[in-house]
Amino acid sequence: MKHTIWLIAIVLFTSCNKQAPKDYVTLSGTFKNIDFDKLILRKYTSKGDSITTINFNPDGTFSDTLKLEEGEYFFSQQGKDPLAILLYLKNGDDITINYDVKGNESAIFEGTGIQGSIYMEARRKKVKELIPDEEKFIATDSITFYKKIEGLKNEIRKLVDENKNLGTAFIELQEEFIEFTEGTMVYLYNMNKAKNDLIGKPAPNFVNYENHAGGLTSLEDLKGKYVYIDLWATWCGPCKKEFPALKELEKSYHGKNIQFVGISVDGPSNYDPWRALVTEEELTGIQLLAPENHTIYPDYAIQAIPRFIILDPQGNVVDPDAPRPSSNEIKPLLDKLLK
C-alpha cells in the first residue's frame, strides 16, 4: 500500500511541475559596435509591419520576450537601412543572437528554434550571390533575364526542401517569398526596359505646371536648350540631400546652353510647403509644381525619386535616369553634351 501511495505521489508531483508550452518568443544576445539604443522588430511583409521596439544596453546586450505570429522578421532603424539579419520566429523559440553591426560576418544564432533563422541567413546569402547588383541583373535581354529568374527560384526551393521539416506554414511562406521576389524583379525589368525605350524619343509632354516665379510652364517652353530635370518632393529626404550639389552644379553651368528645372511631385495638397521650401533652400533655376493628376511616374518609367532626366534642345530624351548632381559622372556627361 505504501509503495502504491509513493508511486501516485511521484506521478502527481511530476504532473503538477510539468511546464506548459511557451506561448512567446525569447530573444536575447549581444550586438557589437552599436551606434543605437533601440531597434524596431518588423514582420517581413510588403508593409514591414512594426512588431515591437527592442531596447539595447550600452554594452550592446539585449533581452526581450514577445508573442507573435509565426513568420519572417527583421531589425530596422529609423531612417537607415535594415540590419542584415533575417529571423524566422514562432512562439516557443528561445534564441540568442550575436552580431557585429560593423563587421562582415553573419549573425550567430544559439538556443532552441534557430533552424528557421539559420535558413533565413542562407537564403539572404543566396539571393545576394545571385543578385549582387540589381541594376545589372535587370539590364539584359529577356531570355537571359528569365533564365536567371528561374535559376534564382530553383536555388531557393532547394534551400526550402532542405528545411521542409519546419512545417507547412514555413513552406507556404517561402513560396510567397519566391512569388513576391519574381514579381518584383519582373516589374523592375519592365520598368527598366520602358525607361531605356525613351532614349532618343520625344519626351512625354507636360502642360501648364505652376511656376514658383509666377505663371504656368509647359515642356514646349523649355525647348531650345538642354534641360536637366530634377524630380523631387518636400517629403523626400534623399531629394533634399541633393540640393547643395544641385545649386553648385547650376552655378558651374550658368550662362551655358542648359537650363535646370525642378519639378515637385508634391501636388496641390502640399502647395504651401513646396513654396516655402523652394524659398528656404534658395533653389534656383525653374521650379515647377506638378498637378494632382500628373502622369510623370508612368510617362518616364519612374519607380522612386529623386530622379534626374536630361533632354536635348529639341525636347528629346538624352538620359531618362541621369547621374545625380552629387555624382562624379554628371559633369563629364554635361561637358560632352555642351562642347
UniProtKB/TrEMBL annotation:
Coiled coil residues, start to end: 149-176
GO molecular-function terms, A-Z: antioxidant activity; oxidoreductase activity
Subcellular location(s) of the protein: Cell envelope
Domain Thioredoxin: residue ranges: 197-339
Cited InterPro entries: AhpC/TSA, Thioredoxin-like_sf, Thioredoxin_domain, Thioredoxin_ResA/DsbE_sf
One cellular component term from this protein's GO annotations in UniProt: cell envelope
Keywords, ordered alphabetically: Coiled coil, Cytochrome c-type biogenesis, Disulfide bond, Redox-active center
UniProt record, GO biological process: cytochrome complex assembly
Signal peptide limits: none
Keyword Disulfide bond part of the UniProt annotation: yes
PANTHER family named among the record's database cross-references: THIOL:DISULFIDE INTERCHANGE PROTEIN DSBE
Name of the molecule in the record: Thioredoxin
